[in-house]
Specification:
single chain; mainly alpha; two-stranded antiparallel ribbon; two-stranded antiparallel sheet; 11 helices
């Protein structure tokens, strides 16, 4: 019994390192042959993109890239901070841009009320060379898309800005070094695994509303390639009401984008925690670009840091 368990463990370890090595081959193949998965005029290419978009092969490519980033960061502190600044800058830039959707949502809601109640209009026409005309109910239901965009695309921005609520009993009184270790473990063993599961389900959920026949995570590549013979675009355009918003497939796209930002933020948070752990408490909040900076002067090369909500 013990020998069988040992053999199973060794087989698992061998499979892991074999998959990690194959990730290099798969990455080179994908980069040097983009037509195999990006030429969507070829149905097999489209199916390969769908399959490999949430495959074991992609997971190990991601894991390999993550390990390379960490190894390079251990060799160069400048590189590690560079990763942090680029990823946090990306989250901040997109978050600040998408946050304007809140203002657009308010303006559009006011416009709908005026057109419905005062001018008794049943439709809205927007024209920028090509007329864009839909009923008022379409624009009213579309307001949900702005909410979804803010939630999905500003999730990492909120994390960078420390706008999330941290509820804990052990983190707050912990020392600086212990906090950074907890942050690294949280990113590696909670954020990334959660994002992997969310990506697996949201990826195929999105594609089931974009193409037919439907695909699922349990389909093998051979089965999906056979499906490619009859695959065709079938973008979901069914609304809740007869004249209501009919682009609900965009919500599925936003779900995938949200998980991608969680991935990016997990890597960024791990790298920041590692960099601050190596440099010590003086680097706490270094290069952190906060919208609401405290009044106290920041240290050289650093920005201020807002306290997180703790319990």
């Amino acid at each position: 019994m013990e020998s069988e368990n040992s053999f199973t463990a060794l087989s698992g370890i061998f499979w892991f390192f074999k998959s990690l090595i194959l990730a290099v081959v798969n990455s080179v193949t994908a980069i040097t042959n983009p037509q195999m998965w990006l030429d969507w005029s070829d149905k097999e290419s489209l199916i390969r993109f769908v399959y490999y978009g949430a495959s074991v092969e992609l997971f190990f490519v991601f894991l390999l890239c993550f390990l390379i980033i960490i190894l390079a960061g251990l060799l160069s502190q400048t590189f590690l901070w560079g990763v942090v600044r680029v990823t946090e800058g990306l989250s901040n830039s997109i978050g600040r841009l998408v946050a304007w959707a809140g203002l657009i949502m308010v303006v559009q809601q006011v416009m709908i009320v005026f057109l419905q109640r005062i001018f008794a209009r049943t439709d809205i026409v927007l024209s920028f060379g090509v007329p864009f005309q839909y009923g008022v109910s379409w624009f009213a239901e579309e307001l949900k898309l702005y909410n979804a965009a803010i939630i999905c695309l500003c999730i990492s921005y909120t994390f960078v800005q420390q706008g999330h609520v941290r509820v804990d009993l052990f983190y707050a009184p912990a020392s600086f070094r212990k906090k950074k270790i907890i942050d690294m473990l949280g990113a590696a063993f909670f954020m990334i695994p959660m994002a992997v599961l969310m990506w697996l389900y949201s990826w195929f959920f999105m594609w089931r509303h974009l193409i037919t026949p439907k695909v699922s995570a349990s389909d093998k590549l051979e089965l999906m390639l056979r499906k490619s013979r009859v695959v065709k675009w079938n973008i979901e355009t069914i609304g809740v009401s007869a004249n209501g918003f009919n682009a609900y497939f965009l919500f599925k796209v936003l779900m995938v984008a949200m998980v991608a930002f969680i991935f990016i933020q997990a890597i960024s948070f791990f790298c920041r925690s590692l960099a601050e752990l190596r440099e010590g408490e003086k680097s706490d909040g270094k290069y952190l670009d906060l919208d609401n900076k405290p009044d106290m002067p920041a240290a050289s090369g650093q920005t201020g840091k807002n306290p997180q909500t703790t319990m």
